[in-house]
Automatic annotation (TrEMBL):
Keyword Transport: yes
Entry membrane topology: Multi-pass membrane protein
Subcellular location: Cell membrane
Record domain Cationic amino acid transporter C-terminal: where: 510-560
UniProt KW Coiled coil keyword: no
Cross-referenced InterPro entries: AA/rel_permease1 (IPR002293), Cat_AA_permease (IPR004755), CAT_C (IPR029485)
Record's GO cellular component terms: plasma membrane
Molecular functions (GO terms): L-arginine transmembrane transporter activity
Signal peptide: none
Keywords: Amino-acid transport, Cell membrane, Glycoprotein, Membrane, Transmembrane, Transmembrane helix, Transport
Similarity field: Belongs to the amino acid-polyamine-organocation (APC) superfamily. Cationic amino acid transporter (CAT) (TC 2.A.3.3) family.
Domain of life: Eukaryota
Protein name per its UniProtKB record: Cationic amino acid transporter C-terminal domain-containing protein
Length: 585
């Protein structure tokens, strides 16, 4: 029984390894510059987040304090970006969080992350396509939706998962974007760059034009009822807004999927990551400020905030330019999402964990064309018939799961032994317990790496126990107080145990500073956000993972390239041993 469990554990938690410089080898073409990769991230963050999300958060959650919401959420995104930058420099592969989890945690965890990422991109792309369609429809006075309802009819009453009517415009739009992406990485990067430049020009115009109407009395003082004009929903509103605004930053993950096509990934990925986050953070803050200084927060249209604000001021030209920018921004968002989606699928297929047909690279375009075609069809159907509002939280949980796993992997890999430079057999003391750690003898009974994994697992458990009372508001309840105490004790004990491990002497191009403090803080924020998502989101995640695990058990375990590699090594060792025995006899 113990032997069987040990074998199963070895299968589920086997890690991806790269021999020599094989982590740089790729069937894809390394042709993307720092600017190309940076603009992929900017393009993925600049769309619906800035044109749709801003008005909703101002009106319903934060008011003018949205600028603080963007600063808070930008800081939270930065904590995850540190970890992505290190992994992107060390392992520049197309799989992003999936590949990083494979290297750091093992195959089953990599599959869990990898299985959620394509769905996250599909839901995000479908949501943006429907937003683009809806925005365009409003500009032509509902002509598109009225024609569809008249000639095609209703799909549903709009209250469930299905949309009120089939969105053919979103359907076609996703195919057109996929064609551009399928023509090659450099071509799609150039298309994306053109859109980004256009968007940045429009945003600069909107910010400058908006500030010409600035009325600072909208920020200062109180309303007659005593409510602060800057904090109409209180500090809690700014924090709640930060939780929503965080998802306007998730696009920076898209640049990690371009690691396999970057010319110099060790330098490109870290620089592109931090540059894109800095630019987007400044833009978000300035856009939020210009909007709330133009119009009182309670008069802002949550669906078309900037266009409506300019219309109220009589700035018709600015409204038209803003509308063009919104359409271009969301189209930009689609290009980067369509770029990242097939690469996330390709990475799993290339490792043998899902059907190998998806891992085929087209000889002419040097892109995963099969994955692009198949998942564009699925994506277009999703946009055609489903109402995406109920699934947006599902996209969020997939993103947070990926971010959390990357933070965990940084902590684990930083506390594992590494080969000393110039040596093929001698390792440093990474992962060893320091002399002051109690029960050192107990941990030495287990295999290498168990202590740091137990510490990280206990830390996550502690974070969850801390988050639940905040989510449910049961501080006055004895159960809530007990959970807080358990969470505090577990988190503190686990963090001290992590500090009790020696870090390795890895000399990668870029390393996360202040480990384990920064990744553990980022993990704390991600866990809290995940706990705040509703129960149905967790149920949908569970159902989706069950489907994925069935595919993994029936196909992935047997076709895993890492398993085949390990079998070849084992066979080689057996052959050497047999030859040695025969020589002795």
């Amino acid at each position: 029984m113990i032997s069987s469990l040990s074998k199963l554990s070895n299968v589920l938690f086997r890690k991806k390894t790269f021999e020599g410089g094989s982590h740089l080898n790729s069937q894809m073409k390394r042709c993307l510059t720092i600017l190309d990769v940076m603009f992929i991230a900017i393009g993925h963050m600049i769309g619906a987040g800035i044109y749709v999300l801003t008005g909703s958060v101002v009106r319903n959650q934060a008011g003018p304090a949205i600028i603080l919401s963007f600063i808070f959420s930008g800081f939270a995104a930065l904590l995850s970006a540190f970890s992505y930058a290190e992994f992107g420099a060390r392992f520049p592969r197309a799989g992003s969080a999936y590949t990083y989890s494979y290297v750091g945690m093992g195959e089953i965890w990599a599959f869990v992350v990898g299985w959620t990422v394509p769905l996250e991109y599909m839901i995000g792309n479908a949501a943006v396509a429907r937003s683009w369609s809806g925005y365009f429809d409003s500009l032509v006075y509902k002509s598109v939706s009225n024609w569809t309802l008249e000639h095609v009819g209703h799909l549903s009453d709009g209250e469930g998962f299905f949309a009120k009517y089939p969105d053919f415009l979103a359907f076609v739009l996703l195919f057109l974007v996929a064609v551009a992406v399928a023509m090659g990485s450099k071509f799609s990067a150039n298309v994306n760059t053109s859109f980004v430049v256009l968007n940045l020009a429009v945003l600069a115009f909107v910010i400058v034009c908006g500030f010409t109407y600035a009325d600072f009395s909208l920020w200062s003082g109180n309303y007659p009822d005593g409510t602060s004009k800057f904090f109409p929903y209180g500090i809690q509103g700014a924090v709640s807004g930060a939780s929503t605004c965080f998802f306007a930053y998730i696009g920076f993950e898209a640049l990690a999927t371009a690691g396999e096509e970057a010319k110099n990934p060790h330098r490109t990925i870290p620089l592109a990551t931090f540059s894109s986050l800095a630019i987007i953070s400044v833009l978000y803050v300035l856009m939020g400020a210009s909007l709330t200084l133009m119009v009182p927060y309670d008069q802002i249209d949550p669906d078309a905030a900037f266009a409506a604000a300019f219309e109220m001021k009589g700035a018709t030209v600015a409204k038209v330019i803003m509308s063009v920018g919104a359409l271009a921004g969301m189209l930009n968002n689609l290009v980067t999402g369509a770029f990242a989606l097939p690469r996330a699928v390709y990475a799993m297929a290339d490792d043998g964990l899902i059907f190998g047909w998806f891992g085929v690279i087209n000889s002419r375009t040097k892109t995963p064309l099969n994955a692009t075609i198949a998942f564009t069809i699925l994506n277009a159907i999703l946009a055609l018939v489903f109402d995406l509002e109920a699934l947006v939280d599902f996209m969020s949980i997939g993103t947070l799961l990926a971010y959390s796993m990357v933070s965990v992997c940084v902590v684990i890999l930083r506390h594992e032994p590494q080969l000393i430079d110039g040596s093929e057999t001698e390792y440093d003391d990474g992962g060893n317990l320091k002399s002051w750690v109690p029960f050192r003898g107990f941990w030495r009974k287990f295999s290498e790496g168990i202590s740091i994994r137990c510490a990280v697992g206990t830390l996550i458990f502690g974070y969850v126990c801390l988050a639940i009372p905040f989510k449910t508001g049961i501080f006055s309840n004895p159960g809530g107080i007990i959970l807080l105490i358990i969470g505090a004790v577990c988190s503190l004990t686990a963090f001290i145990l992590i500090l009790g491990h020696e870090q390795n002497k890895s000399t990668t191009t870029y390393k996360v500073p202040f480990v384990p403090f920064l990744p553990c803080l980022g993990l704390l924020i991600n866990v809290f956000m995940m706990v705040y998502l509703n129960l149905m989101t967790w149920i949908r995640l569970f159902v989706w993972l069950v489907i994925g695990i069935v595919i993994y058990v029936c196909y992935g375990i047997r076709h895993s390239k890492e398993a085949k590699k390990l079998n070849r090594v084992a066979s080689s060792h057996m052959s050497v041993l047999k030859n040695g025995d025969s020589k002795v006899h």
